[in-house]
Amino acid sequence: MAKKLEDVQTQQVTVVQTSQIKGSKKSKFNYYLKELIHHPSGFTGAIILVIVILVGIFGKMIAPYDPMAMDLGLKLLPPLSEGHILGTDQLGRDILSRIIVGTRVSLIIGGVTVIGAGIIGTVIGIISGYFRGWIDAVIMRIVDVTLSFPFILMVLVISTVLGAGLKNIIFALIIAGWVAFARIVRSEVLALREKEFIIASIATGVPRWEIIVKHILPNLFTPIIVLASLQTANYIIAEAGVSFLGFGIQPPTPAWGNMLSEGRDFIFSSWWLITFPGIAILLTTLGINLVGDWLRDVLDPEYKK
User: Fold this and answer.
1) Helix, strand, coil fractions of the chain, as percent rounded to 5
2) In the chain, what are the domain boundaries?
3) Splitting the chain (305 residues) into consecutive groups of 10 residues, what average pLDDT does each group show?
4) Fold assignment, 42-303
5) Which of 39, 97, 150, 192 is the most exposed place for a label (fewest CB within 10 A)?
């Protein structure tokens, strides 16, 4: 009887703990949602970003035309033409459909690049900041040399060597972009390493990997998330710039950068060819940056006003 009573009590404690965890997660979600709603620029950015993501996911379903279907009889139609809200390009392709489908390319490049650069930069930054010494010196010299080149120029050079294409432009952006994460993470790790709980862990003989995984890495999530949100916009702009110069996504695949490149010869006669893809890039990067600013304000107390 006593054993059954003990089992019931254990189950009750487990249920209470589970409900507390769920309640804690729900309260955090409600807190962040409330903060977002009361943050005008962050809320605006979130709306823009949600729309862009939905367009990227369902682009092929909502595009009114095949983005690669050509009709020379309908070339260079101006905006608000019958059946073509944003007009057509020099090959008679619907501009709106190409922008919609091209959204997925930009989101894939931005998302995959920030994940790859973030993982590589975080690992290297932790190694550099935690072990210090000659390891830190070598890594920081590599970072300094990499940062001595303009970001877009380095991406362009790497893309030229590797060749055009989606995979190559992502690889080039990762190679050029991991240093930003490495520098931020290293500085955070150097500060964390002097904290009392880290010093106590080292003194008590806790393995290095356990200190890094259980104590240092969880404290890096906030700066990494904020930096990742801001860097995503930079990667999308960089891809558009490289594609504009002809070393990124190649036609006829619809991408905002190569749409700008194709329309530059018609800038004075058919302004809509570059205006609307440019607006798409502007709104997407603006939404990402506004959300990034909100994340910085809500996650990092040092930036709160």
Assistant:
1) 80, 0, 20
2) 42-303
3) 44 41 64 84 93 93 92 91 91 94 92 94 93 91 89 87 87 92 92 87 86 88 88 90 86 88 89 94 93 83 52
4) MetI-like fold (1.10.3720)
5) 150
